[in-house]
Amino acid sequence: MNSKKAAQLQAVNETLLQQVDPEQINVEVVPVRLSGGSETRESELDEMWSFVQKKANQRWLWHAIDHTTGAVLAYVLGSHTDDVFLKLKHLLEPFGINRFYSDGWGAYERHLDPQQHQIGKARTQKIERKHLTLRTRIKRLARRTICFSKSEEVHDAVIGLYINRHEFGVSV
C-alpha cells in the first residue's frame, strides 16, 4: 500500500463538517430544537469486528453516522477498548451531537451522558445496514473468507480508502 495515500486519509467527514454552523450548535442535556428551526443532532454509534492475518488478531472499526441522513461522520480503527472509542468521541465533538444511539457495549455507557444516550436496536438500523454494505463490498471484512489482510497498516488503509471515497466523496 502506498504510504502517501494512507497519509492523506481523513478520519472525519470534512465536507459535512463544513456545513455545520457553530453558531447554531447548542448542546443541552435534553434534546432541544436549535435556533433557526434545525433539528436535534442525532448520531448512531457502532463497532464492527474484523481481523488481520488470523482471527485472534482482532481489529475493530468504530464509526458514527448521522441518524437522519445516514452519512458517515467519523471513524476510527483499533482495538475493542475504551481508548479507541474516546478517539471517536473526540472526532465527533465539532458536530455538536446531543443525542447518541448505540448497542449496549460498555464503552458507550461509561463515556456518554445517560441523558444523551439511548441503548437499543430500534434506532441503530441504518448503521447496521452500513455494516452489511461494508462486509459485502470489502471482502476482508466478511466473517468467513479467504481474503484477509496480512498487516494492520494495509487493513486500515483499505477500509480508510473505501470510506473516504464512497462515504466522504474524497478521491485519494
Characterise this structure.
With 172 residues, the chain is of the alpha/beta class. It has a single domain, classed as Ribonuclease H-like superfamily/Ribonuclease H (Nucleotidyltransferase, domain 5), CATH 3.30.420.10. It has six helices and five strands. Strand 1 and strand 2 form a beta hairpin. The relative contact order is 0.20. About 7% of the residues have low confidence.
Architecture per CATH nomenclature, i.e. the level-2 architecture: 2-Layer Sandwich
Low-confidence runs (pLDDT<50, min 5 residues)?
26-37
Strand content: 15-25%
How large is the radius of gyration?
16 Å
The helical percent reads 25-40%
**Main sheet?**
5 strands, mixed
User: Superfamily at the CATH H level?
Assistant: Ribonuclease H-like superfamily/Ribonuclease H
Question: What average pLDDT do the residues reach?
Answer: 82
Remind me, CATH topology? Nucleotidyltransferase, domain 5
> What number of structural domains do the residues give?
1
The strand count comes to 5
Secondary-structure topology with pairs:
Layout: H1 3-8, H2 14-18, E1 42-52, E2 54-66, E3 72-78, H3 82-92, E4 99-102, H4 106-111, E5 117-119, H5 125-137, H6 152-167
Parallel strand pairs: 1-4, 4-5
Antiparallel strand pairs: 1-2, 2-3
